[in-house]
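Field notebook, page 250. I keep forgetting to write these up properly, so this time I am using the form the group agreed on. The chain and the ligand, iron/sulfur cluster, are recorded exactly as supplied. Prediction of the bound pose follows.
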Amino acid sequence: MRDAALSPARHADAQPHPRVAPAELRVGGLSRFSSVDFPGRLSAVVFVQGCPWRCGYCHNPHLQRRAAAAPLSWSGTRDWLRRRRGLLDAVVFSGGEPTVDPLLGTAMAEARAMGFAVGLHTAGTHPRRLHEVVRLVDWIGLDVKAPLRDAALYDRITGRRGSAHRVAESLDIVLRQARDYEVRSTFDSAFLDDAALLDLADDLSARGVRSFALQRARSPERPDPAAARCGPTPPTLDALRRRFAAFVLR
Ligand code: SF4
């Protein structure tokens, strides 16, 4: 998932709705305009609070905890979205991990009722909830962080046991039921080498994944990984391109 760039933890600008109503989606941040979070659509990005995993390269660690009070209210965010009809195409639910929230489906249905397309960024932590909401989603970006066959490596990246199994279940749901999707992986040489990346790609293509994006890890020391020439070798990139109908390197 990308940075919650306008999250209230970093930008006072993103605090239009301080009231917190009970029994609402927990909104940890809002990006009012994005052209990169839902392919081909102009979207607002709602960053949902909470994630059970603790990946070392997480860009939004301030969203991992589900704090007692969410900094933004969904009802206020929804009112703001209502005024953006005709100006934005879509609402993307990102995080944190949106599927952690039991009210995700309610919020998605409300966004759809306003005429927005709905996008979802997920790491596949909660396959059961993904199954509940998938019919409400027009496009899913699913993170797959390591070869699904390597449960130990997966758990080392996420800091939690049993994560590969959950992601495999979520991937099956995406492949069977999603209207449109992209599977994406982050290449961080602290966790993946070229051989592991090829194993990951083999796991995905064997399951029928057709659209794959590889994201080079960013960090404060390495804000532009393309300029730093980090990432897999050219032969590995060629091998990845051959495995998928659509492949992109970011
Ligand atoms: S799955 Fe990992 S990278 Fe994504 S929000 Fe959770 S801790 Fe961060």
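OBSERVATIONS:
- The beta strands are 26-34, 43-48, 72-73, 90-95, 117-122, 139-143, 181-187, 211-216, 246-249.
- The chain has one domain: 12-249.
FOLLOW-UP: compare against the apo run.
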